[in-house]
Structure formats: structure tokens, C-alpha cells
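Team,

Forwarding the record for the chain on the shared tracking sheet. I've put the sequence and predicted structure together so nobody has to dig through attachments.
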Amino acid sequence: MWSRPVPDLAALDPSATLLVFGGAALLIALLGARMANLADVIADRTGLGEALVGAVLLGAGTSIAGIVTSVSTASTGHPALSVSNAIGGIAAQTAFLAIADIFYRRVNLEHAAASAVNLTQATVLIGMMAVPLIAWAGPDYSLFGVHPATPILVGVYLIGLHNAHRQHERPMWQPLRTDQTRKDEPDDTSQYGSSWRVGGQFAALVIAVGLCGYVVGETGIAIAGDYGISESVVGGLLTAVATSLPELVTTIAAVRVGAPQLAFGGIIGGNMFDALFISASDVAYRNGSIYHAISEREIFWYGLTIVMTAVLLTGMLRRERQGPAGIGWESTLLLGLYTGGAALQISMG
């Protein structure tokens, strides 16, 4: 059980709660920007590649605020906020790729970042999104308070990472190289100091972002109560976007320095990691299966993210060079799906 710090964040007056929430969100964004630079250095020095390091290290590192938010709120009996924070974050982060596409002016981002690793991860993510839906529609069963879907979801994630690594090491096919395909080549990273120093800085940033995520979760609960807003809306839109700000900052930063595969890998890999939030939340939630403690509103977010990921996957396969307003049709559709889904959730109260 999570212990509350002193002072109790939930006991602050409404205006102070909003200020603390905003401050934590801002810190998450600023610290996340530094993570992108360090992750690119680690990718170059380890030889693992931008897509894979983006998926595992950057994806998990920038997601730490979200998982702390989901686990802490689940442990205190707020399953709707916990799950909507997780799945709303995936939807927001997928939309962030469309925003990053605006900053990548040479060609559509999906065209430049297409790789076997990113295609594999997007496919696995769709499968991971389907597991909670099956659990929600199935029997309400749990062993020691944990639903069988929880270890299954972890297994799917690990198998997906293994397959992505195999695609990086021994690809069975490659996307057609064009004059706009970005090749992942190491850069000079000597100015960053030793690898131990880089790793230590990255670890310190992860801890700091995690603490900010706890503050976001606690103040998110208070905001829902103070203003009478549904926890599904607070989780799916407010805390989800706040804890996803590192992904927005790091994605735009990666694109601006010419690392589209790191940007894509960070988002898709981070989304895979975020899909595990419900597993961690199920363990933290002590009132039975969290899959059966959520409503149709959280299921809506799952369906929306499956559609958005399918659009993203299709965009990488089609590899359109240029679309309306300087971005691809898939980016335009992603923004439309996300804003439409958010508006629908808000209209439901």
C-alpha cells in the first residue's frame, strides 16, 4: 500500500491542487527532454539502434510517471482513473506522432521511420490492447486478487520485445530504401562523457519523473473530487496528457535532430510499456480484478487506441511521401480520431 507524503496532497485547496498538478506536469516535460538526448547517445554507444533503444529505454523511462500514477491511484481504490490514465496516455502519445510529423518537413514521418522493428512493435501493441478487452468481457475471476490476463499481458510484451530484437539483429525483410529513408547511423557522442555518467544521469531522471508522476496521480484524484469531474475524464485526458508530456517533448526533439526512428520507437515502445500499466494496476488494486472494475468509458479508450495504432501501422506500410497541409493522411486522421474521442468523452460528463 502506498503511503501518503506530508503534506497530504489530496487535502490542498482546489487552486493549490491545480498549481501543484501544473508544476509536476511541467517538470515531467522538462526532464523528459533531457532523456531523449541521453537515449540517442546510449543507442549509438550500445549499437542496439534507435528504434530498439527508443522502445525499451526511452519508452520505459518516459513512461515511469504514467505507471506511478496508475499504480498509486489503483492502490487507493480508483480503478477508473488508473486505467483511463494508462490507455488515455497511449492515445495521446500516438497523436503526438502526428504533431511531430508537422515538425519533420522533408517527408512524412511514417515514411522516414518505417522499419521492421517499428512495424513489429505496432503489431504487438494491437494484440496487447485486445487482451484487456477479452478479460473485461470474460468471467470475473482472480487468484490472490490478480486476474489471469495480467501475466498473459506481461508474456505478450516480453515475446514482442524478443521478436523486435530478432528483427533488428536478423531482419527477414526490409522496407524499400528511398532518398528520404533515414538510416540509423551512430553520431559523435564524446562530449557526453563516459557511458557510466550517461547511464547515471538517465537513471536519476527516471527517478525524478517517477516522483512527479506520483504527485500527478494524487492531485488528479483531488481534482476529480473538487470539481465533480468523472475520474475517466480526469485520467483519460488530464493525467494521461500530463504524464505523457515527456513523449511529446522527446518525440519533437528527436525529429528535429534527424532521428525519426528514435521518435517512432520511443512512442510505439512506450505505448507497449504503457499497455502493461493495467497489469501493474491489477496487482495494486486489492478489491478483485481491475478489468471488471472499469466501465464502458475505459473500454472506449481501448477501442480508440486500437484503431489509431492500426492507422499508424498502415501509414508505415503505405509510406506516403506528402499529404494535405504538409503531413500525411494518417497523421491527419490520427489527430481527428483523438480530438473526436476526447470531445465525446467530455460531452459524456
